[in-house]
Protein: FtsK/SpoIIIE domain-containing protein
Amino acid sequence: MTSLIVILALVAAAAGLLRWRRPAWFWLTFGVTFAVLRVLIRYGSVMDACGLTVPAARWRLGLARMTNRPVPGPRAPRILRVRPTRTGLVLRIKLRPGQDAFDVTASCDRLRHSFAMYGVTSRELRSGVVEVRMTGYDVLKRVQMPALTDTRPMRVPVALREDGSVHFRDYRTVPHALTLGATESGKSVYQRNLVASLASQRVALVGIDCKQGVELFPLARRFSALADNPDSAAELLEALVSHMEDVYQLIRAEQRITADVPDAGVAADIWDLREDLRPIPIVVLVDEVAELALFATKDEEKRRDRIITALARLAQLGRAAGIYLEICGQRFGSELGKGITMLRAQLTGRTAHRVNDESSANMAFGDIAPDAVLAAIQIPTDTPGVAVTGDSTGGWARIRAPHTSLRQAVNICNRHADLTPDVPALAPFRPALGAPAPALVPAVESAPAAA
Ligand SMILES: Nc1ncnc2c1ncn2[C@@H]1O[C@H](COP(=O)(O)OP(=O)(O)OP(=O)(O)O)[C@@H](O)[C@H]1O
Ligand SMILES: [Mg+2]
Structure:
């Protein structure tokens, strides 16, 4: 008896310790069983208390009256499936007549408290069927990506959503994206995750990093072209535009539309071309985009106009030529001059890390998902990497990328360095490899003087 009590006490202590230090392990060992039991046992009463039940059908009431049986009580949505996941539970329910998906969405917070879960979200799968996703713990606190994800060409996992699902960056459906955020909010780490995920794919990476290259140059072995200042950025973007024109010439040459070519055989973008002819897709990553749009002199203004024109052309025409833009910056609004809002309108994918004011959040979401603006402003300062992501469908979600250090990203890029393609049009911008020359003179005034 005593030994049983000791064992139980040890198990309870281990569960408590796990729950405190390793919530993900606690969920997989104890949490998931408790949660399934809790949801199944309390389901009817919780739905009733949350106002998610409907009175019994009239024919049932009539039948009960005729047969002198007890009057049937209100009915909750029917559970179609309960699926435990790595981070929580997924409940699929069939609504009763008279209910709608919005009723469930409006009750998510009440369900969260009633089932003692960390988060609850819902979405309509098809008419009358709603999926309720619950998380057992704060999955964004310490992001752990699942080992196996549904990665496909040009579709890479980049972050975890707050409902525990993986957030993918899919270049085929959302070709261009804008990532905004205040300084130290996690933009570069997000971009680094993208590079690390894309590194193993058949894709050419092109980087423009006006912070003198500190973020992207360490990853140079996997980059086909890099620019670290606005002058070389302007030339690089113009080279990309001429590459794009060459790709369109190739597609035109391959179209050869005649009556006997089947519909599927007519190429309108690079993905319709035969694999041996298909030019390699290019992802252009721009960090600190505002640097490209600022100018002080007349010459710099001309350079700025060249850059913005080239970016706008790539954003408008690049997709079918397999050129995708990934733009990061602190702000990206009309105060950066003409052409910026036109360019922004082409960037479908929007992600906002923590921002300091509403107008910055408006630059990301004002024109697509106004309620995401509030969510972006509310991101606390002590959780760098947490972001709100939306798309043109009006939906949005909170996400956080895993904390990939520069060292880890460098290792991944070096491991896949042999996949770095040579794009002839971009050859002059291929980064020179090898250790940078050591600085002979300390460049910082506060450096101690040599003895
Ligand atoms: N997803 C994350 N998880 C945990 N920590 C993160 C995450 N993203 C960023 N951080 C932390 O925040 C710090 C700043 O991140 P990052 O350099 O990406 O910010 P930034 O928005 O690019 O800032 P800046 O505008 O100054 O370049 C990182 O050094 C890292 O410690
Ligand atoms: Mg940065």
In short: Residues 187-188, 215, 287 surround magnesium ion (ligand 2) (CB under 6 Å). The chain is about 35% helix and 20% strand. The chain has two domains: 8-135, 155-429. The mean pLDDT is 87.
